[in-house]
Amino acid sequence: MWKGREYEFGNTLGLIKGIDLSSNILTGMIPREIVELDGLISLNLSRNFLTGRITSEIGTLQALEVLDLSENQLCGGIPSSISSITSLNFLNLSNNNLSGKIPIGRQLDTINASAYEGNPNLCGFPLPKKCWGDETTQNPIMNKGRGQVGMQDEEDGFITQGFYANAAFGFVVGFWGVFGTLLLKR
């Protein structure tokens, strides 16, 4: 019973909105069952001794707004499913042993690099460390597609060959649009 209402044991997991077990000297792996808390808004397991990987099903926590797993001993990659959490507005995965490329997604594009510091084997935006095979470090906010030349391309800046080609094409079309009309009116 809670607040005058009676709940069955199996139906109460959705009532849990926040878990803060930071600085509790917890050890072991993060239980995979954490993803069954579909109403969870805040999860803070920072400053413990947690090991293992972040569950690949973390993306099922669609209500999650705050995720802090910093200062543990987590390893492996950051699951790509984390990019599907559209309500996520605070993420801290710093000071772990995470590795691989940081996933790209609408919410993750707004996360500061400090959220990933202390993971020497992480690479990709927003960190300055490029991943193997990446030609340039690009800001996914300004450059959504791979291989496209964007405003944040570090090598070319704002001016690219495509810019010059489009400017020349625009000039020719504009010039002949005006001059051609005057010429035909005569």
UniProtKB/TrEMBL annotation:
Keywords: Glycoprotein, Leucine-rich repeat, Membrane, Receptor, Repeat, Signal, Transmembrane, Transmembrane helix. It is found in: Membrane. It is a single-pass type I membrane protein. The chain crosses the membrane at residues 163-184. Gene3D superfamilies: Ribonuclease Inhibitor. One of its GO terms (cellular component) is membrane. It comes from the Eukaryota. Its main location: membrane. SUPFAM superfamilies: L domain-like. PANTHER family: LRR RECEPTOR-LIKE KINASE, LRR RECEPTOR-LIKE SERINE_THREONINE-PROTEIN KINASE FLS2. Belongs to the RLP family. This is Leucine-rich repeat-containing N-terminal plant-type domain-containing protein.
